Input
Amino acid sequence: MSSRRSRSGPTLNFKAVLLGEGCVGKTSLVLRYMEDKFNPQHLSTLQASFVTKKVTLPDERRAQLNIWDTAGQERFHALGPIYYRGSDGALLVYDITDQDSFQKVKSWVRELKQMRGTEISLIIVGNKTDLEEQRAIGYEDARQYAQTVGAQYLEASAKENEGVAEIFELLTQLMLERLSQRERDAEPPNLLRLDASDAVSVSEGEEGNGEDTGTGQRSCCGI
Amino acid sequence: MATAARPPSLRLGQQDLKCRRGCGYYGTPQNDGLCSKCFRDRNDKQRKMLKAGDMQPIIGGSSHGPASFSAGGTLERRSPQHFLVRDTPKKQVDKEPDTTSMLQKKKFTAVLQKTLQAGAQKIAQQRGYVPDPTESQFVKQLQKLRIPDDGKRKLKSEIQRLDNEIRKYMNSHSSKNIDELSDTVQNTYTKVADIVHNDPRFEIATNEDRESAIDFFEKVVMTQNHKFLFSPYFTTDEESDMMVQKRIRQLSWITSKHLDCSIDEVNAEARDLVYNAISELEKLQCTVRCCRHIFELLKRATGGPASADDFLPALIFVVLKANPVRLHSNINFVTRFTNASRVMSGEGGYYFTNLCSAIAFIENLNGESLGISKEEFDALMQPDAGLQSFSSPWESALMACESLHLISENMKQMEKLQRKNADISSGIASFEKELIEFQREVTERVDTVMAKAPLTLLPIKTPAFLIGQARSQLLQEMHEGEAGHYQANVLSGSQSLTVHSGMVKTAVAAEESGLALKDTSISSIGRLSPLPNLQQPDNLFASPIFNYAAFDAVSLLEEPSSGGCADVLMLGAELQGGLTNINYDFDLSDQSGENSTAEESKLNLDEFDPLAQPQPQPCGAPAAVEPETSLLNTTTDSLIDSDVPGTCVSLPSPLKPEVANYRGFSNFEIPSISCNTGDFSSLGHDVETTEKPK
Output
C-alpha cells in the first residue's frame, strides 16, 4: 500500500514483514542478508528488527525495501495484524526441524489470506537447512503446501548464508510484479479484477478494502 | 474510500459481501455495500453532479478565501490558482460516502456556516496581524528548501489551502467525523506528493529535495492545526486515554519476568537506560529515540543486535512503567494525520507500529499472555496487590515517574484553564466597565435632560377671571366696609398674581421646549396624589375660620402630627423646609384650575392668556411671590366659605395635587367658580399666617 501511494515518485517503497514462530531464525535471516550486502557496522550499532535496504530494480528503478521483524512469541500472535497491515510482502519463516513452527506458518497463511487476500506476496521460508539431519518437514511437502496457497517456497540457512539473498530478491521481484499488475489493473479495471477475486475465495471482505487506498494502515490501533 | 479500522474477525455471509451493483466483486460496508470500483464510479458521478449543482454555494462560501489567505499566510501574493484550487477540496469532502445526507445538512447549515466562517475569518485576520513566530520559522525553512521558486509558491498555496480547509471543517460542520477529516488530509498528502513528483515546476529538484518538500508540507500543516486536530472534542480519544492509563496503573505489578524480557531490573546501568526510555516516551515524536534507548538497553542485555522478539516485550515493559499520558490521543493524531505513505513505512513507522502493538497487548493482556494462571492474574489485579508492589524502590521510582508525567500534563491543563479563566475575568471586567459606562451614560443623559428642563415647580397662576372676580368681590366688600386690612392685601396679591401668571406662562413655554414637562407633572402627582381626592370635598367644606386654624396646624403639622395620616406627615416633613413650599402646595391645590404644573397650567394659560400681563420676573421671585398669591386666595376664601372644620381643610390643602383638581375643574367645573372662591376663602386665613412670619 505504501508503495502504491508513492509509486508516482521514482523511489518505490516496499514493506515486508517477517512472520513466524519464535526462534525460527527470522532475525538471523535479516541479519545475514543485511550484513552480507551491506555495511555490517552500520547494522550492528542499531538493531535488527527494522531494516531498510535500497535495491536497484532490473528496470533501473530504485526501490527501498523495509523489512519489519516481528516478535514471534505466541502471546504476541494477536498483534500480527498491526504489523502486516499495509505490507506488500510477507516472509513466513519456519524451522525445518520443528513441526510446530510449520503449523504456525500455516495459521499465519490462513490469517493473511483472510485479511489481505491477494494484496500481499507470500514466501514461505524453511530455515536452518544446516540441520538437514534433523529435518522434520520434507521439502516437497512444504513446496506443495505453498503452491496450494499461492505462495513461493524457499529454503535457506541463515547460519551458513545459503539462499538468504535469494529470498529477498525473490520477494522484491514478487512485490514488483504485484505492483505492476495492480497498475495494469487500474487501467482496464474490470476483467483482470474479476480473475483476481475468483482465484482467491478466502479473501472475502478484505478485497474491497485493500483495493482502495492505503488507509488500512491507519487503523493499526483499532484492534 | 474510507477504510479505517475494521475488526478483522468480522465475517459476513457471502451474499452480503458481494457488491450491490452485482458486478461480481466483493463490496464492503464502508463503501455502502459496493465494491471499490463501483463505489468510486458512483462517487465520481456524484461529484460531477455536485460540481454542476453545488458550485454556486461553494463559491459563495469561499468568497472569504482570498481575504483569509492574505491574512493567515502573510507572505504570498495571491494568484488566480488559489481560487481554483480552493474549490476542489470541498468537493473532496462532498464525495465522501454519505454525500447526499451531508449535502442536505450542508444546505441547512449554510447560513450558520457563513456566520461561523466570518467569525473564523476574523480570527484568522487577527492571527495575521500578530505575526506568528512559528509561521515565520516556516517561512525561513521554506526559503531554505532547495526547490524552484515556482514550486515553493505552489507548496505554500497548498499548505494554506489545507490549512484553511481544516479550519473550515472544524468550524462549520454540525456533525463531524474524524475519519472524514482524516481522509481529506490524507488525500491532500497524496495530491501534494503527486504534485511534487510530477509537476513541471519541481522538475529540476532532486529526490531528496522533493521528499523534504513533502515533509515540510506535512510539518507545517500539522503544527499549525495541532490544536484542532489533536484529540478533537467529537472523538472519544480522551476516554480511551483514561482507560489505558487506568489499566496500566492496575498492571503496575508486572515485572520484566512476566514479559520474558531480558531487562535486568537490578542492574543500575540498565535501570538508567529504562528511565531514559521512559522519559523519552513522553512525547510521541520521541518514540524513535525511546526505541533506540530500548535497543541500546537490549544490546547490553543480550550482547548483540536485538531482535523483535526481545524488543517488543521491552517496549511493552517500558510503556507499562512509564504510563504515558494521553496515549490514545497522541496515537490517533498520528495515525489520522501523518503522511501515511512516508512516515508509516519508515523506521518511525515501525516503532510506532510497535508502540501500537504494545498498547494493544496491554489492553488485552490476561494471565495467559503473562504466563501466569488466571487466578493469580485476578489476584494481582486487585487494587491492594497493586499497592503492595510500590513498596520496592524500583516501583516507587516508577510511580513517581508516572506521577511526574501526570503532573506536567496537568500543569499544562491548568495553564490552559488559567488562560481561559483570565480571558473570562477580563471579559467580565470589560463587561463591568461597560455596565458602569452604560450607567454613567444613562445618568448623564438623564442629567442633561434634567438640566435642559429642570423640575421647577412653578408658581400658581390665578386665572385672570378669578382675579377679576376676586377684585370685584373685594371691591364690593371694601365698599361694604367689611374688607379691612386683609382685602387690601388680597388685592395687591391678585395684582401680583396676574404678573405671576405671565411669568408662569413663559416658564411653561420653556418647559415645553425640554422634556421635563412630563417629569415634573409626574413627580408632583406622585408626591401629591394621595391627597388630591381628599381635597375636593375639603375645599368644599372649607371655612375661613377653620382654615385659618388649619393652616396653622399644617404649617405646624410637623410637630403635633395632627394630620393623622402618614402620607400627610411625610409631606409635612418635606414641606418643613420652607413655608414657601407649603404655600405653594396650598396654592396648587386651592387653585386647581389654574395650577402651574406643566400641562394643565399650559392649558390654563392658553385660556387666560389675554388677561395675564406679560411681566417677566426673575426666576428666584416666585417663591417670594407665592405668599401673595395665597393672599388672594385667602381673601376670596374668607369671602365665601366658612363651614368646614379646620383640621379637615388644613391637612389636604398643602398636598393638593394640581393635576387632578385642575382637570376636574377645567373640564367640568369652570363654570362653578364659586367653589374656587370658596377655597380661596378658606385659604385666606392661611395667607395671613404665612405673612405673619414675614
